[in-house]
Write a structure and sequence with these properties.
With 246 residues, the chain is α/β, with parallel strands linked by helices. The chain has a domain of 170 residues: Rossmann fold (3-Layer(aba) Sandwich). The chain has 6 helices and 10 strands, in the order ββααβαβαββαββαββ. Strands 3, 4, 5, 6, 7, 8, 9 and 10 form an 8-stranded mixed sheet that branches. The chain has a two-stranded antiparallel ribbon with strand order 1-2. The radius of gyration is 17 Å and the shape is globular. S-adenosylmethionine (SAM) binds next to helix 3 and strand 4.
Length: 246
């Protein structure tokens, strides 16, 4: 099923270097900071933690070269990830925490010519790198969005898929961001997290930068998402998909 997105999409902040990627936008109704019934961070969550997990520090743009390292295609298999998620022409998707756009350009090719990608990040420097990459690839269906820790800046009820690759574990305010993603998804939309497997002793990265599947399910379940599947076919990461709870 190919959906044609509406002409109006939220575009709160765009980069001047990515003028070709811009789209006019309507201002949406404000999105609540937490989903009704969600498990907001409380006194039970000491600062810097959520539901027993230590939040990682967001990766700086100074390390952006690492996101474009040569062996990433072999180790993280981006095209396979997008095959698993089944992106199609006409979808409106978001690459939340897009970084330098490694996944964004691949997503944009998959949803073209009728779909588009909202590529969000907290760091303007990352979006500048992303804008260069989008321009070099001559893509016209990417909308860069400068998000904040407390505002994901996504349009309400329009997204078929939100992808976060190596991002969820470092969200500074997971409850707020999840509520806003939930509000941005269509009723049949999906959220996909790609996270390093904490259960796997071969994954030799810092503890806070990987997650167990039960912890992912606990956090997402507490915020109005319904577990759909965990694809374990990547060497070190898993692709976990969720739908929106009715
Ligand atoms: C490890 S990088 C991954 C980048 C990209 N997804 C990739 O796989 O190449 C994580 C990125 O998430 C961004 N980030 C962290 N929290 C965010 C938030 N709440 N909203 C948007 N971006 C966020 C960081 O600024 C950083 O650029």
């Amino acid at each position: 099923m190919v959906r044609r997105p509406g002409l109006s999409l939220l575009l709160l902040v765009t980069l001047t270097s990515a003028a070709a990627c811009r789209r006019a936008a309507d201002k949406p109704a404000p999105i609540p900071s937490a989903a009704p019934g969600s498990s907001a961070a409380t006194a039970a969550d000491p600062p810097g933690t959520y539901l027993g997990r230590t939040l990682a520090t967001p990766m700086s743009y100074r390390g952006a070269d690492w996101l474009d390292r040569e062996d990433r295609e072999t180790t993280e298999q981006p095209e396979h990830v997008l095959d698993v998620l089944g992106l199609r022409d006409g979808w409106t998707v978001a690459d939340v925490g897009a970084g330098s756009g490694y996944f964004t350009v691949r997503m944009a090719r998959r949803v073209a010519p009728h779909g588009r990608v909202l590529a969000t990040d907290l760091q303007p420097e990352m979006l500048a790198l992303l804008g260069d990459k989008v321009k070099a690839a001559k893509l016209t269906n990417v909308v860069p969005v400068l998000a904040t820790e407390s505002d994901a800046k996504l349009p309400r009820g329009q997204l078929d898929l939100v992808l976060m690759v190596d991002v969820y574990h470092e969200l500074p305010r997971p409850v707020e961001t999840l509520a806003q993603i939930r509000a941005a998804l269509r009723a049949d939309g999906r959220l996909a997290l790609v996270e390093y497997r904490a259960e796997d002793p071969k994954v030799q990265i810092k503890e806070e930068h990987k997650m167990t599947l039960p912890q992912i399910q606990k956090e997402l379940g507490a915020n109005g998402f319904v577990f759909k599947a965990s694809d374990e076919s990547l060497p070190q990461q898993r692709i976990v998909t969720f739908g929106v709870a009715p």
